[in-house]
Design brief:
By secondary structure, this protein is of the alpha/beta class. The chain has one domain (about 5-340): Alpha-Beta Barrel (TIM Barrel). About 50% of the residues lie in helices and about 15% in strands. It is built from 15 helices and nine strands. It has helices spanning about 5-10, 30-40, 45, 50-65, 75-80, 115-130, 140-150, 160-165, 170-195, 210-230, 250-255, 270-275, 285-290, 295-305, 325-335; strands spanning about 70, 85-90, 95, 135-140, 195-200, 235-240, 260, 280-285, 315. The chain has a seven-stranded parallel sheet. A two-stranded antiparallel ribbon has the order 2-3. Helix 4 (about 50-65) packs parallel to helix 6, helix 8 packs across helix 9 and helix 9 (about 170-195) packs parallel to helix 10. The radius of gyration is 19 Å and the shape is globular. It binds coproporphyrinogen III (CP3). Coproporphyrinogen III (CP3) binds near residues 24, 26, 88 and 93.
Length: about 350
């Protein structure tokens, strides 16, 4: 079997140059994505069409020599299967109804079949992917998914969920536990259909105080990792608690994840010194440095590579690629990562 360098790094080995992929690599900065999306009508129609979603997953791999492919789907497929209505309003982002701030979890009727098309996408991608490419599945972490379920939409400060976590902790805990349960089913389904590793996206981990971070970020992720390790011990898990800052160290020590993602606000030299020895890290180019290009981009890539040269490292962005990023800048970044 061909070696998958990204998977080897997730298992704790060092590869030079570091393998790479990009968060949101399948998306709107690619003209071929925008074209397919226009013909399919909407984001959700595309995500639920395994042929289209597999095509979108593979699009960036046709252009760029990335080492990883990330499943094209969304973290909000889980609330959809828990029974909320899901729509993507053009220019405004996702809407989930009814919002759990004002309705009861018990009143939602689960629709688990909503997970099935995603497994179809995984099988199609798996059949088409080069043997050296690592296939990444994913889910949102319970806290981040709950922020959308409670408010019914995205928000700048996650106030609705943060308030509920203090005023109605039992109700909020029930929401978190339900997300955990479905996430374990969903990730297991992705693994059984063919993904090699998974990433847990906790995009709003940065909005919590330290005690709340322990309860709503570390504990739920630790329970998910424990369950996944019992079911699928050989599948590595990347945890990405965006905005965690110094709390990333506790997250890395306590959750049991195999690797952690660094967002662009973290100094990679600090991360190397502070994180457990030998733990693989992923990151952390500022998406705005990629957007800007030029000599600044090369310098930023070099700095990250140098800071993380003594541990297993997967080169990535600190968050998703901006949709206005020129394709030439992505090519420049990959060449620099590979040392060309
Ligand atoms: O390429 C990839 O990274 C894989 C696919 C992927 C998508 N969403 C596709 C998508 C992944 C991994 C996600 C995760 C996701 N979804 C997160 C966590 C990561 C992050 O960005 O913090 C979150 C918070 C969501 C929820 C979500 N989905 C929002 C807030 C939006 C609207 C954002 C916007 O800019 O309009 C989406 C839609 C979405 N998910 C798009 C894509 C490519 C854009 C849809 C489009 O208009 O074509």
């Amino acid at each position: 079997m061909a070696e998958k360098p990204l998977l080897a790094v997730l298992r704790g080995e060092r590869r030079d140059p570091p393998p790479s992929w990009m968060m949101r690599q399948a998306g709107r900065y690619l003209p071929e994505y925008r074209e397919l999306r226009a013909s399919k009508g909407g984001f959700l129609d595309m995500a639920y069409d395994p042929d289209a979603a597999a095509e979108v997953t593979l699009q960036p791999l046709r252009r760029f020599p990335f080492d990883g492919a990330i499943l094209f789907s969304d973290i909000l497929i889980v609330p959809h299967s828990i029974g909320q209505d899901l729509t993507f309003v053009a220019g405004e982002g996702p809407r989930l109804a009814p919002p759990l701030a004002e309705s009861r979890l018990e009143d939602l009727a689960p629709v688990m079949e909503r997970l099935e098309p995603i497994y179809g996408t995984v099988r199609k991608v798996k059949a088409a992917l080069a043997p050296e490419t690592t296939f990444l599945g994913f889910a949102g972490s319970p806290w981040t998914v709950a922020t959308y379920m409670v408010a019914g939409q995205g928000s700048r400060d996650q106030a609705a969920a943060r308030t509920m976590a203090y005023t109605r902790p039992d109700d909020f805990d029930a929401i978190i536990r339900r997300i955990e349960e479905v996430t374990i089913t969903y990730l297991s389904g992705q693994i059984e259909a063919g993904v090699d590793a998974i990433q847990l996206f906790d995009s709003w981990a940065g909005s919590l105080s330290p005690q709340q971070f322990d309860r709503w970020v570390i504990e739920p992720n630790a329970r998910i990792v424990k369950a996944m390790k019992a079911l699928h011990p050989d599948t590595p898990i990347i945890g990405f608690p965006k905005g965690a800052g110094a709390k990333l160290v506790r997250y890395a020590q306590m959750t049991g994840v195999d690797a952690v993602g660094l967002d662009e606000t973290l100094d990679p030299e600090w991360a190397h010194a502070a994180l457990p020895e030998g733990m693989p890290v992923q990151g952390n180019l500022d998406p705005m440095a990629l957007l800007a290009g030029g000599a600044q981009l090369d310098a930023a890539v070099d700095r990250i590579k140098t800071a993380l040269k003594d541990r297993p490292h997967i080169f990535n962005l600190g968050h998703g690629i901006d949709k206005t990023t020129p394709i030439a800048h992505v090519e420049q970044m990959i060449n620099r990562v590979k040392g060309a």
